[in-house]
Amino acid sequence: MATIALPRPIPAGHSRSSSPPHSHPLTPTLSLDSINASPPFPIPIPNKHLPVCPTGPAPAEKPDTPPHSPPTKELSLPQRSLLYPPVNYKSRYVDSSIIYEIDAAGVTAALEHLASQPLPDPSQVFPWFHGLHPCNHVQQAFFIQRRRTLRRTPKCIRGITIVKAGGDLTCSRLKGAITPDEFLKFGSTTQFQEVDPKDGFSVRNFHIQAAKSAMVSDIIVYGDDPLIVEEMARQIAAAQQVVQLQEIAEGKSDKWQLGFPSSGMIQPPSWEHDQADGILETCKWIYNLSHGILPEDEDGDSPMTTNIKERKILMHCTDGYTESTLLGLAYFTYATGHSIPKAWLDLHITKKHLLRHLGIKQILSVGETATWKDGEMDKWGKDNVMVIQRVQDNGVDPLTDEFGRCLDFIERGKLNNTATLVHCRVGVSRSATICIAEVMRTKHLSFPRAYCFVRARRLNVIIQPHLRFSYELLKWEEKLRMTGGKYGGKWRGRELEWAEIAREIAEMNRPYSAGR
């Protein structure tokens, strides 16, 4: 078996004008076209769906979150790799690219070294991991606003991507290996796929993480046929060179295309009057259609029909509530005249009596509070309710800092022989993250194993911690293992790397997300 290591370009800081192409850092521009080309599953699985949590208010320039900690030495240092600089590996030119050879022992050493390296802080790799396509004004406006630096490819992360030449992973598969077509686009010239979504908003783009991680990784190609391995290595090196040249070209341009997000992605106080009036006019239009009411003729200069048929109007979206909630709630308040709190309660029923019947005597509210009537929460007792504030499910707010309080509260309930309800808004992201962290702590499981443990114990709702929460849980695993306890002994490293975990989650989600 032949193996070839392809190092990613050197970090920023070197001259762009005088250095050869392979010395420039990768700052790719990506999209989702090739991912969407995968064939959908024709048979949906019943009673299962992937919920998408409402993101809450878009972060302002000065978000209502605790200030960032001062930079530390750990945050500023990039991940180290045994593969870079590639001084210990035999090199040779293939066309205009350089590739390096590595043996099995070298691969093992490099992977073990990487697994023992601390992961970069979430603030250094997000929102880049979310996917920030230049044409996706919604995603960009939500995450980066006017801060262009957040769009740049992070230089603090340096992973290892293992590629099976030929793409057959049914045999001779190394852990974490991917196929070439998961991140490459083949044609007259081989290029990296553009996997960042061109439109829409999502904080759960697990399916693009393998391709994005490959852009910031040293790439190892292996296989049974040395000729096929070398050819694949050549194509990957050529794709890297295309990205490097593209970065140079884009660096000369000072033109940026700006766009305004859709109404569902803007929150007060950034709303303008015409945008708020737009929702009001939409509700009025729906109300008139459903009640057979014609709009008034403002000019009065043309005859108008007086009778129209009342219509039933279906509001729907992919999962039945994510995209339609804002419009449904707005229309319900418009049609009934109810206040927002009353309309919300009428649309969402909270069964507090069921909680007591199930032996739940503690409530942990993560980022949200139960919308009960005044006095209902007091019946539980002040010490039996904990509210974690200022944590939105927006891919920006961190949750790691709250792990200690939350898990201590859950442990208190265990000592009192009572169950604890952990909830957020939808119950699949913030609350699921806390539950996974608790399972990791008490059952001494790695993040991938704890994720599967919690996911398998839900009914028809699949847990979906977004990318940042998932990354923070991987860091939580790192912290638990390094602090010892029942893990004991020297930390041997992570079971799976970030790109591998994201890829497996995307594969688990695929049967339930056909057509997305």
TrEMBL record:
> What are the record keywords, sorted?
Hydrolase, Protein phosphatase
Q: Which SUPFAM superfamilies match?
A: (Phosphotyrosine protein) phosphatases II
Residue spans with biased composition (Low complexity)? 14-32
Instruction: Work out whether the entry's keyword set contains Hydrolase.
Output: yes
Which Gene Ontology terms describe the biological processes this protein takes part in?
Answer: nuclear DNA replication
Name under which the protein is recorded? Tyrosine specific protein phosphatases domain-containing protein
Residues in Tyrosine specific protein phosphatases domain copies: 401-469
Q: Which GO terms describe its cellular component?
A: nucleus
State the superkingdom: Eukaryota
One short Pfam name that applies is DSPc
What species is this protein from? Answer: Sclerotinia sclerotiorum (strain ATCC 18683 / 1980 / Ss-1)
Q: Which GO terms describe its molecular function?
A: protein tyrosine/serine/threonine phosphatase activity
Q: Which residue intervals make up region (Disordered)? A: 1-76
